[in-house]
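Please decode residue identities from the backbone states below.
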């Protein structure tokens, strides 16, 4: 073994160390990202399991074109009001007001409280109303009371 073999081994060893030094942070960050994503997914699954709602009542006023839907949070999870959607005959009601225990524009909907969603400009009597929460819980009804 001459000097050239020793030099080649030294060059390859240095190259290997540099490669490992550059690769290690990227692999470490990837492992950390996967771990955080797994934790987030598990937290969301736990929230979904602990969420429960009861669609209490749906009332449509044909004179004012207003649909009132009341939903009770019977689970143990505090939900985001903005993440709760109201679908009227398959279309998301965008012109709406929300009231949690008759207080307008609250952001959180705590367990044991009632959310009332007032959908405006509903021009025809709805056949089906669906409420979907941010935790993935969905409740629907075709039992809609019509008042004039």
């Amino acid at each position: 073994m001459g000097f050239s073999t020793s030099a080649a081994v030294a060059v390859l060893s240095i190259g290997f160390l540099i490669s490992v030094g550059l690769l290690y942070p990227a692999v470490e960050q990837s492992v950390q990202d996967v771990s955080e994503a797994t934790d987030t997914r598990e937290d969301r699954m736990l929230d979904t399991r602990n969420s429960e709602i009861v669609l209490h009542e749906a009332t449509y006023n044909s004179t004012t074109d207003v649909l009132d839907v009341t939903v009770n949070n019977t689970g143990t999870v505090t939900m985001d009001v903005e993440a709760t959607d109201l679908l009227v005959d398959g279309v998301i009601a965008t012109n709406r007001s929300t009231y949690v225990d008759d207080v307008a524009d609250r952001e959180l909907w705590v367990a044991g409280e009632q959310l009332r969603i007032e959908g405006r400009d509903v021009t025809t009597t709805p056949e089906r109303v669906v409420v979907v929460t941010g935790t993935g819980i969905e409740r629907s009804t075709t039992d809609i009371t019509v008042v004039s």
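Observation: Helices lie at 3-50.
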